[in-house]
């Protein structure tokens, strides 16, 4: 697959500045980077974003993530590789990514499970990072960014 254009964010310096600020905010709220990485990978799998799945999984592996957990992210409910907090984050990521799949996009029990494990700043980071991942996924899908390519 060939990309249609250079990633739009790389073409607009002000966009890169904004993206970097959101990245910094989400990653400085006290939430474990591994949790942010898991929700990024899961949302990217759902959206079929090969560039984000590839780069996310590679980054997670470089950070020391195990193959068992990497291979099981799409089937997180059926494994015991993830903590209860990670499961709550993954479920929130799935609901926040599949907004149109149900009338109540993020039901109270899903939110409450996440709120049980994360403080308000961590929840804010989680929601922002899920939304940012979906943002990246959509840019990459529209412009057909191939896996294995770096931008910016």
TrEMBL record:
Q: What GO terms are given for molecular function?
A: peroxiredoxin activity
> SUPFAM superfamilies, per this entry?
AhpD-like
Database matches in Pfam families: CMD (PF02627)
Domain Carboxymuconolactone decarboxylase-like residues, every copy: 13-94
Q: Which InterPro entries does this chain map to?
A: AhpD-like, AhpD_core, CMD-like
Tell me which PANTHER family the record gives.
4-CARBOXYMUCONOLACTONE DECARBOXYLASE FAMILY PROTEIN (AFU_ORTHOLOGUE AFUA_6G11590), BLL7811 PROTEIN
Q: Which NCBIfam families match?
A: ahpD_dom (TIGR00778)
What is the designated name of this protein? Alkyl hydroperoxide reductase AhpD
Write down the species. Catellatospora methionotrophica
What does the organism's lineage look like at the top? Bacteria, Bacillati, Actinomycetota, Actinomycetes, Micromonosporales
């Amino acid at each position: 697959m060939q990309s249609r254009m250079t990633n739009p964010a790389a073409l607009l310096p002000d966009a890169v500045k904004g993206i970097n600020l959101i990245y910094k905010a989400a990653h400085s709220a006290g939430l474990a980077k591994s949790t942010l990485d898991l929700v990024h990978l899961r949302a990217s799998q759902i959206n079929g974003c090969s560039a984000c799945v590839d780069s996310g999984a590679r980054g997670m592996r470089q950070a020391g993530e195990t193959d068992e957990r990497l291979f099981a992210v799409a089937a997180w409910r059926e494994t015991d590789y993830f903590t209860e907090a990670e499961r709550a984050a993954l479920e929130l990521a799935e609901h926040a990514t599949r907004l149109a799949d149900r009338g109540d996009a993020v039901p109270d029990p899903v939110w409450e499970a996440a709120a049980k494990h994360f403080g308000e700043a961590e929840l804010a980071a989680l929601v922002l990072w899920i939304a940012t991942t979906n943002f990246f996924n959509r840019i990459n899908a529209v412009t057909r960014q191939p896996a294995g390519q770096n931008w910016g």
